[in-house]
Amino acid sequence: MSDSEPDEELLELLRLSLGIKRTTSSKAPDTEVLKDAEYVYNNSIDVALDTYGTKAAAAKIWDLMQEKGYSFKKWSEHTLHPKEKDESTARFIFLVDLLNFCFWSENPDPIQCFSVEHQGQIFTGYWSLVAAISRALEEGIPVTTPSFWLNEDDCTDDLLKHIFRSSTSETIPLLDQRIQCIREAGRILDADFSGSVIQLITKANRSAAALVNLLTIHFPCFDDVAVLDDRIIHFHKRAQIFAADLWACFEGQSYGSFHDIDTITMFADYRIPQMLHSLGCLRYSPSLENRIRGLREVESGCRSEVQLRGCSIWCVELIRREIVRQHPKAEVNAILIDFFLYDTMKERMKEGLETIPHHRTRSIWY
Fold first, then answer.
1. pLDDT tens digits for range 333-364
2. Cystine design at 167: which of 30, 117, 212, 280 (Cβ 3.0–4.6 Å)?
3. Looking at residue 252, what is its pLDDT?
4. Has 338 been annotated as catalytic?
5. Which residues of the chain carry a pLDDT beneath 50?
6. What is the distance between the alpha carbons of residues 167 and 118, in angstroms, rounded to a whole number?
7. How many CA atoms lie within 13 A of 303 on its CB side?
8. Residue 49, phi then psi, degrees to nearest 5
9. Which one of 224, 245, 269, 338 is the catalytic residue?
10. How many CB atoms within 10 Å of residue 85?
11. Is the distance from CB of 243 to CB of 215 less than 8 angstroms?
12. Secondary structure (H, E, C), the chain
């Protein structure tokens, strides 16, 4: 804080001592993710952005998005994503994004990794989570109902383990932490939002940033932050993707109607940095690149990991700006770029075209 800026905490204490009620601020909600990502980029040592590579990637991404007719409608076209536009789908999305983290396996044999069999198909990664939840609903288990999470007589830990059962001998990573997230979310929804995901969404007043802030303030398991140089860095991957998934699923209407959806950034995970590196946008220091290529874990919250996440967010923002600069009428935001890069990365994996492994971090944040 500079000398010219007021100390808000002292002002609030003064107001209280004088019996003055604080007026509601008209300032637009801010997740702080983008400005923190820029700070990380400006102070990064192990991760750098290639300006030429980023501009070239922007052109390539835009051309491919146009060629494929890529829009938020692609979300509902995925086989496992729900097609109904109702309250049950909003609850489904909440549970998915509550548990949307850490699917990578240390097993070098992909056939032996955690996977879910559903409707005659085998699903891995993020899709294994969606498949497990869909399978549970088809089996008559009300797994997307928050009140069910509170009833530990019916919703036992053993039942939750059954819901996330694998088609292999390997269990889903961080199973205990996922169960803790479900229990915590059930308690907080019950206490603060009358047990309703819809009330949570409604309280955001059609602001995606406000929805992110509600999640991160009320739910510890959504408060995805780190520290760099004594500064708190906000990432909020899963909170942001909840707003984004609602927007994409409901096509900007109903529960997905947000007047500030473009404030949502790319979702800092382990797949998008991998794709950005493959596109020539990101460059790593020799020590970090050796760690990633050697399949050695990058500790959650360490400086290198914070740089990977922060620089990826800023890189996608620069890609977005370059697309808009080249195509002023382009309707594109960081969400669509993220979705497109993720889908493209999964296609490259299937074709064996990965040029570098993803970084390995065990965390509930992504």
1. 999 999 999 988 778 767 777 899 999 999 99
2. 117
3. 97
4. no
5. 1-2, 21-24
6. 10
7. 12
8. -100, 135
9. 269
10. 16
11. no
12. CCCCCCCHHHHHHHHHHCCCCCCCCCCCCCCCHHHHHHHHHHCCCCEEECHHHHHHHHHHHHHHHHHHCCCCCHHHHCCCCCCCCCHHHHHHHHHHHHCCCCCCCCCCCHHHCCCEEECCEEECHHHHHHHHHHHHHHCCCCCCCHHHHHCCCCCCHHHHHHHCCCCCCCCCCCHHHHHHHHHHHHHHHHHHCCCCHHHHHHHCCCCHHHHHHHHHHHCHHHCCEEEECCEEEECCHHHHHHHHHHHHHCCCCHHHCCCCHHHCCCCCCCHHHHHHHHCCCEEECHHHHHHHHCCCECCCCCHHHHHHHHHHHHHHHHHHHHHHHHCCCCCCCHHHHHHHHHHHHHHHHHCCCCCCCCCECCCCCC
**pTM of the entire predicted model:** 0.90
| Contact predicate 308/298, CB 8 Å | yes
Closest CA to 200 of 101, 100, 87, 96: 87
Q: Which residue has tokens 């970084």?
A: 359
pLDDT digits (tens, 9 = 90+) for 210-245: 999 999 999 999 999 999 999 999 999 999 999 999
Residue found by looking up tokens 């059954």 in the block: 162
Token pair of 282, please?
């990101």
CA torsion angle 246 249 251 254 (round to 10):
-50
Q: Are 29 and 207 in contact (CB under 8 A)?
A: yes
First to last CA, the chain: 31
Structure tokens at 366: 């992504």
Exposed/middle/buried for residue 239 (C-beta within 10 Å: 0-12, 13-18, 19+): buried
